[in-house]
Amino acid sequence: MLQGSLFDQAEETALGSLEAVRRTVLGDGAWIDVLPGWLSGADELYEHLAGGVPWKAERRQMYERIVDVPRLLRFYGAGERLPHPVLDAARDALSAYYARELGEPFSTAGLCYYRDGRDSVAWHGDRIGRGAREDTMVAILSVGTPRDLVLRPVGGGPVVRRPLGHGDLIVMGGSCQRTWEHAIPKSARAAGGRISVQFRPHGVR
Ligand SMILES: O=C(O)CCC(=O)C(=O)O
Ligand SMILES: [Fe+2]
């Protein structure tokens, strides 16, 4: 009974308007757009993804050793059904909002599951694909325990830090993937898990 009534009161999972995004120009042709609380009722999405996505643990060669990648992953290619309908809605809303500036839709979704503060992603740009040569955008919806996304210019410079909370959106745009690097540092404070959903255009990885 109690659980039922609590569940009935839970906020509906819904996206707000993208008109409220605020842009910060980083320099060297790179920028970030941030919209805290884009998704409301994010608990339901977090629980659904944490329990329902067939997460993969990967291992990578690091110099002479094979090490665990410190997060769980799942990639959804163009045309693949996303694991929650609100993610299709998010991708489509981003594609519509950025259509003129981006010139193509967001088509893939990469999901990362940071199980706790020990999980992380090291400094990198998303440069496996076209992001190495072309301006593009990577839009990230974050749910779960807040974690910082940090950015720094390639070759060094001041670090820009953006805390990403439950339901927050950040979009990295312009030359950000090739002239800047980003990371999710380990955190002694983060007790719970975080899931990020990265929307990218076709061919950007
Ligand atoms: O989890 C995030 O917000 C960032 C993940 C990321 O940078 C990546 O997968 O390329
Ligand atoms: Fe990245």
From TrEMBL:
Domain of life: Bacteria
SUPFAM superfamilies documented for this protein: Clavaminate synthase-like
UniProt keyword terms in alphabetical order: Dioxygenase, Oxidoreductase
GO molecular function: dioxygenase activity
The Fe2OG dioxygenase domain, residue ranges: 105-203
InterPro entries for this protein: AlkB-like, AlkB-like_sf, ALKBH3, Oxoglu/Fe-dep_dioxygenase_dom
Annotated Gene3D superfamilies: Alpha-ketoglutarate-dependent dioxygenase AlkB-like
PROSITE patterns referenced in this protein's UniProt entry, alphabetically: FE2OG_OXY
Record's protein name: Alpha-ketoglutarate-dependent dioxygenase AlkB
The species this protein was found in: Streptomyces endophyticus
